[in-house]
# Entry
Amino acid sequence: MPETAPPAVEVRNLVKVFHLRRARGARRRSVKSLVAVDHVSFSVGQGRSLAVVGESGSGKTTLARMVVGLERPTSGEIAVGGRERRSTRVGSRERRHRAREVQIVFQDPYSSLDPRQTVGRCIEEMLRLHFDADRAGRLTRVAELLDQVGLDERHAPAYPRALSGGQRQRVAIARALACEPRVLICDEAVASLDVSIQAQVLNLLSDIRDRIGVSYLFISHDLAVVRQVSDEILVMKNGRVVEHGPTDRVLDEPADTYTKLLLSAIPRPGWHPVAESDPQPVAT
Amino acid sequence: MATAAAAKEQLFPSARRRRNLDPVILAAGAFIGVLVLVAILAPWIAPYNPNAATILAANQGVSAAHWLGTDPTGRDLLSRLIWGARLSLLGPALIVLIATALGTVLAIASAWIGGLFDQLVSRVMDLLFAFPGLVLAMIAVAMFGKGLVAPVVALSIAYTPYITRVLRSAASRERSLPYVAACYVGGVSARSICSRHLLPNVFPLLLTQSTISFGSALVTLAAVSYLGLGIQPPTATWGFMVSTGQSSILAGHPAESLEAGILIVVTVVAFNLLGDRLAGRRSLQAL
# Structure
């Protein structure tokens, strides 16, 4: 990749303010505003991966939704692959174009698939929209994508209700990859999976990065998960960036007190694992 | 081999299991099916001309010649009920069809567009709720004349809010789910998201809602006929038969009102049971 290549995603001074209206019956004028994202800037290089971490309400999901075009920034700029995204209210053609730039995998695998659409048709819908291929070509590609996310061609005619959470999340990843995006945003994509499945999906995501060179924007509250998948970490608190740096540096020598707090809050005894041979790990 | 089949069964719920129908659904559905068939085949199965008066055979009771008796002008009641099924069912069917089409489009558009449009639609629906269907139908008849068209159009409008309100809340619930966001991000056009994702996901509700509305529309339209504002005599409709039979009740011949009334009640109950049970199945099918 030449030095001059534009970053996969570049965000400059992004701000999102929500105006919270009081419940019905209250005075109309009493409007509270909440700054969800406060002048956040970062960039993710081609094939690189950035993790955005922070507690609930720190603005990381709002950030992701703005990058992908589901939320309109109050101010600031977003450029994907060097192309500025000016408006969120765009026509179908522009949205199709953007779909090939950024895709997103959501947190909840139970609601991120249409319950009345089979796995195969779900992926095929994306293919039909973005590529000129006949049905046979599309079906081959569906099988390829399913294989890529560790599923089988057999799963294509299944409805989401017949699949487990981990399998559904794989389908959601396959659907996102179907558009062949440059950037894949994972919004807490493994948070609702149990730990062993989390590891599988994380490995899968790293594999995919190695194979097709997609960039990741990884939204997570879980620092342990983040170490496995990201090159850089951005720590957010109350909408602001409190720390930004390479993964190892941030996790091993956190500079900010909030990052230290987050690190100390990792609930897993196994994160600095006791030797596997030790039959009864006892806290000392 | 057997385990492979079992595994497949688990992954793909077979059509056989889905066809395991509730007996109530079967019974109500069968009854409605028979009614529709009777209505279609009226010219072939009605034993007499429904409008042929035979004064000598007036007010006869149940007999081999007239299975359900005759009215004061000697017309065969069975034939009149059979012919009456046509307009008595066609009217509500049209009402439900128009109201459902209108309501579905409004509901899904509201859920998708949201904001001011949604508010506007909701307020207009609230306004329409304020008019009882029967009153709206009477106004329409006063303006456009008696017959089938005016009450049907008026009742279609009166039933639209019932469909719209239920579907709008369901559709906006679906719209807020991540799979719709995923479609949006994937570049699926608004029209496709609405027609290929939102519509199929609210369809079970649409089906139950319109089935229940059918029963209600049948009663209201029968009331319009009963008041003499619907289809004009001598054409038979069940509602009008209840009305014309009234005068002979005191004379000791309740057959006409009674038979037409029972038929209306049973049909409405069948539609309501069907809608009710379909709604039950829908919640079972979720996930």
